[in-house]
């Protein structure tokens, strides 16, 4: 990455809204935004080769810090995630993905092992109950981090902010996420205050540790602060302001100082961008993003974690999200769901139907002439090789659909026609429902 280029630049802002089209510059290439990042949990997208993934138009890939933590040192020795040649369980070529990458902190995975823990802890504190009930849980949150039992090998393990940063910097993605505590819809307002404050303390610890290792592999690795706060406006705005202003002294320029760490100057370093996460209802998405992004600095990118439904992406782009990720396009493809501009199709309904998946689709599957009926026959086949072929074809189609959506959103912003594009897309998409 050229030192003359900022990490993020805005090409065009959306009048009357928070949306924008921009470019994220990384050591392994540019990401033109809005953009969808394909999810390759173990460092590759299941059932798609690197060539297949490139054909979808994918600009970047998100991988999982938790699942890759055991291989982090090996990945570092190969030069980082973009150079790593993974051992693939699907038997495809293990070529490295030489484009931009992102890793999550692993927080979601370890928190989910103790699903509902926050609510239980809060109630037990109120009642003066000891935490003997926690013996059956796989994850336990404390100020230092999360103690958990690895579900794969049954061994005790621990990840806190420092460990997460060390793991992610060894994996060497271009963009990392700070360690955060994910709450659930069942958690109370009071517990969300407690968890959000802990996430903010973890964010500062993440920032300090990341600064020690961000250049270890010979290129700049960037860190996003992750916002929580549940469904409450005061919490969302408060944590957005806190993370936006959080910075620490740059040891390369100034000696460490105990004074204010809430002003980013040339001698202080803050987050390079922000991850928008947390538990909330779908109908609240637009408002929550507006609350967050009205407080966050406009000159830093924002990543909306774990959503890929077309109306979610359209709302996200309008409300200032720049990049997106979700496992749904490939996961739902494996379960027989095919994405189209006229709504999603269930292949169970298309036996012997020789119609194209989506007329005019430019994905490799459609260009090769595969039909709904022929794909369904592969999907329902008892032959593992045929089924794997189906997974590849359907995954490529669904990924291309979502990536093309973000490409079209970007172009509509650049051409000042986003709202017309949004309305036309949603009208057609829901016309069959």
* Biggest sheet layout: 8 strands, parallel, barrel
What's the CATH C level of the largest domain? Alpha Beta
Low-pLDDT runs: 115-135, 257-263
Helix content: 25-40%
What kind of assembly state do the chains in view correspond to?
A: single chain
Q: Supply Rg.
A: 22 Å
Shape: globular
Please report the number of helical segments: 15
Report the count of strand segments.
Answer: 18
Major sheet: order of its strands?
Answer: 4-5-6-10-11-14-15-16
The CATH topology of the largest domain is TIM Barrel
Q: Termini, distance in Å?
A: 46 Å
Structurally, the number of domains stands at 2
CATH architecture level-2 label of the largest domain: Alpha-Beta Barrel
What is the name of the CATH superfamily of the largest domain?
Answer: Queuine tRNA-ribosyltransferase-like
Structural category is alpha/beta
Determine the strand fraction and express it as a percent band: 15-25%
Average pLDDT works out at 90
Write a compact overview of the structure shown:
The chain is an alpha/beta fold and 433 residues long. It has helices spanning 50-55, 65-68, 72-77, 107-112, 117-127, 161-171, 189-213, 233-245, 285-295, 310-318, 328-334, 364-367, 372-379, 384-414, 418-429, and strands at residues 8-13, 20-26, 29-33, 35-39, 61-64, 101-104, 139-141, 146-149, 156-159, 175-177, 222-227, 247-249, 268-270, 273-276, 302-304, 323-325, 337-338, 345-346.
């Amino acid at each position: 990455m050229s030192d003359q280029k900022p990490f993020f630049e805005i090409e065009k802002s959306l009048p009357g809204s928070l949306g924008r089209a921009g470019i994220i510059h990384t050591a392994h290439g540019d990401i033109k935004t809005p953009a969808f990042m394909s999810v390759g949990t173990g460092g590759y997208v299941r059932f798609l080769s690197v060539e297949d993934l490139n054909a979808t138009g994918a600009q970047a890939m998100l991988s999982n810090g938790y699942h890759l933590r055991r291989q982090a040192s090996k990945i570092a020795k190969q030069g980082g995630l973009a150079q790593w040649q993974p051992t693939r369980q699907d038997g495809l070529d293990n070529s490295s993905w030489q484009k931009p990458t992102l890793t999550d902190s692993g927080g979601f995975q370890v928190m989910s092992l103790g699903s509902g823990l926050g609510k239980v802890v809060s109630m037990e504190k109120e009642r003066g109950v000891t935490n003997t009930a926690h013996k059956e849980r796989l994850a336990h949150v404390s100020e230092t981090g999360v103690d958990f039992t690895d579900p794969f090998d049954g061994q005790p393990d621990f990840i806190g902010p420092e460990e997460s940063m060390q793991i992610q910097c060894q994996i060497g993605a271009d963009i990392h996420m700070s360690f955060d505590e994910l709450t659930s819809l069942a958690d109370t307002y009071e517990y969300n205050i407690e968890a959000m404050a802990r996430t903010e303390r973890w964010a500062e610890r993440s920032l300090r540790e990341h600064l020690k290792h961000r250049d270890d592999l010979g290129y700049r690795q960037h860190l996003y602060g992750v916002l929580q706060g549940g469904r409450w406006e005061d919490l969302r705005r408060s944590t957005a302001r806190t993370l936006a202003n959080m910075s620490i002294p740059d040891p390369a320029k100034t000696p460490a100082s105990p004074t204010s760490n809430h002003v980013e100057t040339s001698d202080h370093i803050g987050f390079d961008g922000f991850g928008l996460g947390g538990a909330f209802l779908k109908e609240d998405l637009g408002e929550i993003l507006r609350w967050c992004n009205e407080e966050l600095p406009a000159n830093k990118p924002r990543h909306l974690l774990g959503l890929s439904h077309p109306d979610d992406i359209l709302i996200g782009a309008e409300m200032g999200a720049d990049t997106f990720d979700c496992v749904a396009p490939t996961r739902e493809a494996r379960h027989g769901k095919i994405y189209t501009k006229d709504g999603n199709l269930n292949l169970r309904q298309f036996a012997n139907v020789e119609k194209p998946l989506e007329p005019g689709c430019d994905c490799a599957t459609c260009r090769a002439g595969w039909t709904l009926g022929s794909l369904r026959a592969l999907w329902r086949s008892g032959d593992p090789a045929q089924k794997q072929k189906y997974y590849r074809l359907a995954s490529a189609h669904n990924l291309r659909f979502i990536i093309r959506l973000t490409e079209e959103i970007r172009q509509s912003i650049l051409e000042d026609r986003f709202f017309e594009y949004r309305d036309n897309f949603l009208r057609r998409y829901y016309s069959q429902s």
